Each structure stands twice: as C-alpha cells, then as structure tokens.
Amino acid sequence: MEKFAYKLDDVDDAENIKSSSAGRDFDYYLVAGGGYTGIEVATNLRRYFNKKNSAKRIIIVERAASILGPLPQWMKDYVLPNLKKMNIEIMTDTVISEVQERRVFLENGNVFDNSMLIWTAGVKCADFIQGLDLKKNRQGRLEVDKFLKINDSCFAAGDSANFAFRQSSLRMAVQFAIV
Ligand SMILES: Cc1cc2nc3c(=O)[nH]c(=O)nc-3n(C[C@H](O)[C@H](O)[C@H](O)COP(=O)(O)OP(=O)(O)OC[C@H]3O[C@@H](n4cnc5c(N)ncnc54)[C@H](O)[C@@H]3O)c2cc1C
Asked: Is 152 exposed, middle or buried (CB count within 10 Å of its CB: 0-12, 13-18, 19+)?
C-alpha cells in the first residue's frame, strides 16, 4: 500500500495525485475509504475528468456496510443519489487486499488493472507524536484532560490530542483544532 497507493494528507499529496492522473492514463480510480475525504476526492476527480471530457470509472471502496459511517441516515440518503448522478460507483462491505503497481486486488476476488488507488481510509497525526512515549489512543492521538493537558508541563491540541467528549473522541477537524 505504502509503495503504490497515493495518500492524501497534505497539499503536496494532492499535487502528486493531480500530476500523476494528468500524466498517466489510468482506466480506474479507486478511492479507499467512504468518509468525508474519500467522497471529496471522488467528486473532485469526476469534475476534473468531466472538464477534460474523459469518462473514467471512479469507485469508492468501503470496508463498512455503508459510506459516511457515523452520519445520520438522512445525510446518507442525500449523498448516495448525488454520487450516483455523478457516476461514482460505491462498493461497501469490500476490502482492498493487495496493491501492485497500477493493479488493485479486492478480497472478493475482483482485480482492477491499470488503476490508481487513492488512500483516504484513516488519518494519522504527525510522525513526531507517533514516536513519543506517552499514553495515546488507537489513532495515535495523545490523551489529554479537559484543560488539554498531557502532564504538568505539556499540552496538546488539534489532531494530536484525544479529547474525550460524551464517551467518544472529538473528530480530527478544523473546528476542534482551533483553541
Ligand atoms: C484531505 C483532508 C481533508 C480534510 N478536510 C477537512 C474538512 O473539510 N473540514 C475539517 O474540519 N477538517 C478537515 N480535515 C482535517 C483538518 O485538516 C485537521 O483536523 C486540522 O488541520 C488539524 O489541525 P492541527 O493544527 O491539529 O494539525 P495540522 O493542520 O496538521 O498542523 C500541524 C502542523 O505541524 C507541522 N509539523 C508536524 N510535525 C512537526 C514537527 N516535528 N515540527 C514542527 N512542525 C511540525 C505540520 O507540517 C503541520 O503544518 C481534512 C484533513 C485532510 C487530510
């Protein structure tokens, strides 16, 4: 995955996806992960290819039973037909098992030749944080108290901090990063 999939963590990654899709003629664009970022990528790819009058297959591959997992059903009911209108395919309950150069294998046996895989399934916080010997959650975010304190002398905020709220963590989102 690390070698052949395209990740999207920052602007450089976005530029890389854009220049790679302009420079090479892929038949399939597979987006791993049906969360906000996956949907944003898939819809922007469709707009990009529409402008170039190029019909490409764009497929969102999601391991869970539905896209946009935590959102209420009415929002999914809004998004799904709109994705269909944009000719974006969705495969739920589907796992990507292997990636080779320009080839993607699914656990159900499907193989996509000459394809670009864009990985949006799961975000992580900075490498610097990953290396710290401090208490973290499953995403590698630092455990903080209600004052964003890790210990007597250190604080963490934004994506780096795991701030518990009503039995779950605040999302990695701009609104929660502004303090
Ligand atoms: C593709 C994508 C789409 C997103 N879309 C949305 C959206 O629509 N709405 C939304 O609310 N959120 C969105 N997010 C999430 C949002 O970007 C983050 O939650 C937010 O940027 C977190 O802010 P932050 O300040 O904690 O971290 P960041 O914005 O990641 O800032 C951390 C900074 O620290 C720097 N840094 C890292 N390590 C070091 C080091 N060792 N020394 C010095 N500097 C270092 C990094 O280069 C970076 O500039 C998106 C994220 C991605 C990846």
From this structure: exposed
Place of tokens 């000719």: 87
Q: Which residues contact 136 (CB under 8 A, 6 or more apart)?
A: 129, 142, 143, 162
Ligand 1 mean position, distance from CA 138 (Å): 18
The domain 6-119 is placed in CATH, from the list 3.40.470.10, 3.40.630.30, 3.50.50.60, 3.40.50.1820, at: 3.50.50.60
Handedness of CA 6, 11, 14, 15 (dihedral sign): negative
3-state secondary structure of 52: coil
Per-residue pLDDT tens for 80-136?
Answer: 999 999 999 999 999 999 999 999 999 999 999 999 999 998 777 788 898 899 999
Give the rounded distance of the alpha carbon of 70 from its chain centre: 14
Helix and strand totals (H; E) in the chain:
5, 12
Atom 41 of ligand 1, residue of closest alpha carbon:
128
Q: Which residues are near ligand 1 (CB < 6 Å)? A: 8-9, 37, 123, 126, 128, 158-160, 172-175, 177
